[in-house]
Structure formats: structure tokens, C-alpha cells
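Appendix B. Raw example, untouched.
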Amino acid sequence: MTGPLPEQDLILAYRETIRPLYAYVSRRVGGDFNLAEDLVQETWMRALDDWQAKGRPDDPLAWLRRVAHNLLVSHYRRIKDQALDPSVMDLADERSWPSTPDAAAVVGWAMARLRLVHAEILEDFYFDEKPVQQIAAERGLSERAVEGRLRRARAKLRDKIEHMPSRPADSRLRTAGGGTEHERQTRTR
């Protein structure tokens, strides 16, 4: 479809996609309401511009998610490194994923620096909560291959976070056993 879209088509697409798009963005920013709204609004502004010129895509939600993903990556690449504190993430817990805006900023910053193949599998597993079986089926891989790729992607993410530049001097990454190394040493004294 080319040319201007009828207003009713835009309204229908908006109603069908706004909730899933907001959920997609919100999970990736750790529930930061203002940032999620800004990114969803920017995504829809781009959709209006693009769809008026090129027509509505066959799968509007997929199109919107891809644009939102790109905006998230751009946002996290622009964040000043010194504003991030990696100690907000428990890197020893493989099921731990950002539940606060600070943790989401750290993970988002690191994921924006990962290869796309690593970032996508982490997003599928953690953000979209797809089971290993589903990821394997979608990618034409065995479950064991997906588990291996998840393990490698987690290691790459952990490495990016552990080597963040301008990390506060007194900040220590959380390790197994809970809390920072400093907090555990203080408790055992």
C-alpha cells in the first residue's frame, strides 16, 4: 500500500499495537515510565512519517518493535558511561534481569555494545520470556545449541558490564552469595 493512509487505518494500527509496544519498551528500560513513554512516542512519530510515505507495513507491530529496538540501542549508546553504576546488577544470578531503571540502564548500555546475535538471544530469553524450546524452534537450532549461545551471550554481557569505563571507584560488582564483595566482608567480620 502506498500513498497517504486513511486516518481510520492509523487509529486501528495504533489501538492494536500501543499496549504490546509499550510493554516491549517498558521491559527493556526497567519500568522507567518517562523513558518508555518518550521512546514509544518517538517510535510512533517515525511510523507516521514512514507509513505516510511508504504505506503501512504488513506487520505493524514487528515494524514498531524494530524501530523501538533501534531507538533503545541509540539511547543506551549515548548514555554517559560515568552515570552508570554496574553494582546494581547481580551478575552471578543467571535469571537476574533488570527490574529497576538503574539496572536496565547498565544492561541496556552493555547490550548496545554486544554483537546483534548475542543481544537478540538475550532479548528473546529475558525480555520476551521465550523458553529455550521456542527460541530453538524459531531459529532452527537444537535446544542444546540455544543453551550454549545463551551461556556465551551472558558471558559477553557480563564482560561488558565488568569492564565499563568510569565505574565509581568504591563500586564492586555483586557476586554469588548476595551483595557486593565489600558488603559480604563487612557481614563476616
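End of appendix B.
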